[in-house]
Amino acid sequence: MSSIESLLQRMVDEEAIRRVLFDYTFHLDMNHPDELVNLFVDDCEVVYGPNFGAVGREAYAKTLLGIGTYFVCTSHHVSNVVIDFVGQDEARVRSVVLAWHRYTRERPDSTLYGQYHDIMVRVNGQWKFKRRELRTSGAKDFHVKEGVPIGRAG
Amino acid sequence: MSSIESLLQRMVDEEAIRRVLFDYTFHLDMNHPDELVNLFVDDCEVVYGPNFGAVGREAYAKTLLGIGTYFVCTSHHVSNVVIDFVGQDEARVRSVVLAWHRYTRERPDSTLYGQYHDIMVRVNGQWKFKRRELRTSGAKDFHVKEGVPIGRAG
Amino acid sequence: MSSIESLLQRMVDEEAIRRVLFDYTFHLDMNHPDELVNLFVDDCEVVYGPNFGAVGREAYAKTLLGIGTYFVCTSHHVSNVVIDFVGQDEARVRSVVLAWHRYTRERPDSTLYGQYHDIMVRVNGQWKFKRRELRTSGAKDFHVKEGVPIGRAG
After folding, report:
1. pTM of the shown model
2. Smallest Cα–Cα separation from C154: which of B71, B125, B18?
């Protein structure tokens, strides 16, 4: 493959990877658990906090069951996407998220400010999440009390 | 056109389309109604809510007249841009927006969390809005009471 | 250089420039002053407000000294990135930022809504900040009282 073709393929892959990140937020905000699960590989790992996560697609699917009734609505804003390839079919991806939530229960809306650290892999021509870790910069009125810290230097 | 040229053209178009989205927010926040109107085709349709929108560029221009005095300032943050081409000169574009507003009148600042669903077309080599619909995920203290719902599954 | 090669190089440069913007926010939120300084050229200029900024990398480094203790955490969300090249090795870049801050001192969290206006240059193959100016659309509870206005039309 020529240098031009390989550069072009890398950029197509970058856009495809960004799209998976954005489809994730779309289906999360739309409460589409089946579409969400399809963005992950079978043996995925999802880490939301020190004591909150899932290993494997089935376990991940279970964490999504309550979304429809727990939230009235959510809005996930992902930006600052940085992609590092590890070979042709794997990438480490860093992004930031501002996640806003309105609850069914009587409690204030919350905002979470965090980072996603993802490992993406290409499976059958489709980029998917192999590992997704949410780290928490800070939050206001968020329902999850303990997040993975971003590791800010002291 | 070779496969390389057509892939490259698609990526150039993607960047050009994102730029129109970002120029829109810039001119909105800068209160530049003429520059805003120029981003739309003559027979455009703009939908902000079930009872709030405009058909045609002239009607759209009228909806922008009050912006300068109604708001002290606004800030529109657009991300999660996903582009699907429908032929070479048309694309469906989905994005999310966090829109913050400070009012001239004595009332609290507001934040709107929403999705833009756009139809973009290429006219004379320039990508423009053919149809722009704002759907509302949620809002706090926003002056428009009824938005188009995002259609979140129950 | 053929048209294809030059178009492709421009897109690689666009992605590289976006990455510098996103690495900046990452290292800012992580409190990595050395990595931040490395994103700027020696004779850089940084403007945060009419009376707040730095000329030269050393002076800029000094403005970063207090970050670790002044903030408990911050989260910078950059989007709406628009890039205009001025020759092959220089670009004008506009973006918007939502910056959230939690303070060590007992005071409310703050949010700044603003625009970055940057001049980026390529030095030894690496894109760096030559000039970075933060303009303020609006803010809530922010510790800096006077920002550079965005110049919104009246």
Report:
1. 0.97
2. B71
